[in-house]
Amino acid sequence: MKNKILYIPAFLLLMFACTSEPDFDFVPSIGFNGIQLITTETQGLLGVSKKDSVIMTVDFQDGDGDLGFTPEELAKLTKSTGDSLQTFIVNVLVSKNGKFVRSNPKEKFGGNIPIRFKQGSKAGPIEGTIDYSAVFEYNVFQGIPLLTGKRDTIKFEIQIKDRALNASNKVETTPIVIYSK
Fold first, then answer.
1. Chain centroid to CA 1
2. What are phi and psi of 16, to 5 degrees?
3. What are the residue ranges spanned by the domains of the chain?
4. Is pLDDT at 82 greater than 80 in this prediction?
């Protein structure tokens, strides 16, 4: 009986040791994971200042692992193209009369994935999560058209790009109410 028990752990060890790398597409893929709202107040010279911080979380998969730029790579690319590249693209959708309408802020809304997820030159699959936060200051909402500053319901459309500028699918967050306190 003792000999049979030893074979079971050895078999399980061999079974789990022989897993292969996942087979993801070279074009990144994302999925909506969650959204969180944090309201903060700070006391300043002109009184109390309030802001809503919205944290959006997406899951990602990329077959060759070429997500993100180092700050040096990003500066070089921006200098060569003359345009600021966005690798984490966010569109703001504002609820108006029961429908969500894309708002086009004066400033680009989104940013860059500021780190390389995979170092070195060896391509290979990666997966994980990315958190992105946006701040909405009370009484400073004129930069985003369609916002009223009072209990605005918004959601976000998110897309990412890798270093080869392959664009992922787009996902939408669930709606969230800002400027409610």
1. 54
2. -80, -20
3. 21-178
4. no
